[in-house]
């Protein structure tokens, strides 16, 4: 058939870059550069399957915008006629990101560069006089301000909070430590900060941190059990001094459930008469002695592991990370697995499942919060989903390209 629209078999018509395609290719290049110190344009084109002209187009604009810089190429890159290729890498000075874990009684913050590499961190107690989340947030950011480099722009902030969080709408649906119920944070955040702020549950942030920082876990299923002990002076009356949450990575993606409540933990042994924020069967006066009473700690570990082993048999994850305060109790965790739960743990272990106490994990929620913000820069935008990720991407890089529709 002779037609001006016909073409040779096996050849595809190449269409021009749309705004979305530019954004997708840009994120592809940025994510690749996040994992290497430097590379060349030709190497990126080959590794990513992009046309050299596409790579050159994007790299030139990213260099002009300051997010990329020319640097020494790695010695492993081939070169002809004695000429070394020009190296390209991320510019750490392009911007800094805040990751903030905000609790009722303390905050833990980190500052990273654009690669997610920690620059500095700070943890400090919050005054009991700060009774609202707004006051606590502003006090924490103000306290952190001297640690920020005044010569480098703040790209954004990730905010980790306990409780049920709708990250798309930036609504805290239920948080008993901050006394919030269906509270929208978005308007307050936009009015107070010139940079974008993403909000996520703190246990979900921990799971994000594991996924972000460990390449081999990028596509595997894992769970993160986060536990935090609180100063009772900062809590509402009759609220237990321990909070527990779960972050679930399933199929390589954070699972939040249909109503953003996936991972909300409550022991099967908790009496029905207890209100929802009671997550364990132990009494309040028993929980007050967690740090002094070995028997109480063992009971907490035993109850938690019983619930988690049941869940692991259902979900069959590769690993369960136990972080926060209880993550420091590695010996007690191992003892329970070898005694109370020997029979239940053995088949899971034989399947390749692991339980990993995270003994030094106090910064995990803050690191994960920063990762949630950075992920909007490195992840390929989704077609037809104009959520906060699209908005943040436009604010970070929209000045280099036409904004996404």
What does this structure look like?
The chain has helices spanning 19-34, 41-48, 52-65, 133-144, 186-192, 202-213, 284-287, 294-315, 330-338, 342-350, 364-378, 388-397, and strands at residues 68-71, 87-90, 96-102, 106-113, 118-125, 154-161, 164-166, 171-175, 180-184, 197-201, 222-229, 242-250, 253-254, 319-324, 354-357. The protein is α/β, with parallel strands linked by helices. The strands form four sheets. Strands 5-4-3-6-10 form a five-stranded mixed sheet. A five-stranded mixed sheet has the order 13-12-11-14-15, covered by helices on one side. Strand 3 and strand 4 (106-113) form a beta hairpin. Mean pLDDT is 85; it is low at 1-17.
Q: Structurally, how many domains make up the residues?
A: 3
**Helix proportion:** 25-40%
Net shape: globular
CATH homologous superfamily of the largest domain? ATPase, nucleotide binding domain
Tally of helical segments: 12
Describe the structure concisely for a colleague.
The protein has 405 residues and is α/β, with parallel strands linked by helices. It has helices spanning 19-34, 41-48, 52-65, 133-144, 186-192, 202-213, 284-287, 294-315, 330-338, 342-350, 364-378, 388-397, and strands at residues 68-71, 87-90, 96-102, 106-113, 118-125, 154-161, 164-166, 171-175, 180-184, 197-201, 222-229, 242-250, 253-254, 319-324, 354-357.
SSE blueprint and pairings:
Elements lengths: L18 H16 L6 H8 L3 H14 L2 E4 L15 E4 L5 E7 L3 E8 L4 E8 L7 H12 L9 E8 L2 E3 L4 E5 L4 E5 L1 H7 L4 E5 H12 L8 E8 L12 E9 L2 E2 L29 H4 L6 H22 L3 E6 L5 H9 L3 H9 L3 E4 L6 H15 L9 H10 L8
Parallel strand pairs: 3-6, 6-10, 11-14, 14-15
Antiparallel strand pairs: 1-2, 3-4, 4-5, 7-8, 8-9, 11-12, 12-13
């Amino acid at each position: 058939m002779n037609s001006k629209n016909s073409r040779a078999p096996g050849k595809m018509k190449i269409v021009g870059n749309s705004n979305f395609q530019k954004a997708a290719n840009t994120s592809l290049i940025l994510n690749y550069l996040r994992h290497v110190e430097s590379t060349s344009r030709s190497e990126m084109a080959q590794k990513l399957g992009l046309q050299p002209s596409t790579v050159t187009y994007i790299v030139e604009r990213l260099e002009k915008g300051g997010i990329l810089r020319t640097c020494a190429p790695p010695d492993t890159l081939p070169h002809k006629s004695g000429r070394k290729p020009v190296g390209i890498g991320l510019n750490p000075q392009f911007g800094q990101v805040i990751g903030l874990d905000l609790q009722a009684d303390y905050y833990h913050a980190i500052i990273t560069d654009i690669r997610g590499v920690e620059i500095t961190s700070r943890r400090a107690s919050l005054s009991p006089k700060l009774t609202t989340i707004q006051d606590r947030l502003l006090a924490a950011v103000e306290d952190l301000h001297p640690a920020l480099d005044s010569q480098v722009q703040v790209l954004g902030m990730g905010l980790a909070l306990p409780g049920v969080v709708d990250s798309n709408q930036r609504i805290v649906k239920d948080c008993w430590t901050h006394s919030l119920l269906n509270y929208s944070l978005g308007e307050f955040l936009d009015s107070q900060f010139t940079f974008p702020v993403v909000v996520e549950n703190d246990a979900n942030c921990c799971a994000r941190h594991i996924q972000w920082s460990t390449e081999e876990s990028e596509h595997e299923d894992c769970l993160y059990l986060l536990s935090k002990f609180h100063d009772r002076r900062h809590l509402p009356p009759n609220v237990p001094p321990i909070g527990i949450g779960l972050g679930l990575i399933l199929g390589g993606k954070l699972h939040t459930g249909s109503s953003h409540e996936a991972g909300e933990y409550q022991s099967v042994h908790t009496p029905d008469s207890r209100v929802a924020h009671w997550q364990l069967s132990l009494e309040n006066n028993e929980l007050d002695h967690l740090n002094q009473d070995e028997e109480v700690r063992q009971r907490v570990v035993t109850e938690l592991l019983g619930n988690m082993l049941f869940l692991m048999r259902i979900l069959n994850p590769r690993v369960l990370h136990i972080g926060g305060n209880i993550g420091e109790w590695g010996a007690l965790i191992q003892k329970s697995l070898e005694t109370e739960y020997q029979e239940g743990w053995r088949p899971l272990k034989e399947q390749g499942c692991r339980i990993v106490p995270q003994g030094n994990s106090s910064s995990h929620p803050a690191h994960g919060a920063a990762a949630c913000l950075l992920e909007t820069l490195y992840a390929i935008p989704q077609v037809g989903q104009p959520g906060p990720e699209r908005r943040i991407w436009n604010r970070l890089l929209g000045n280099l390209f036409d904004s996404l529709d």
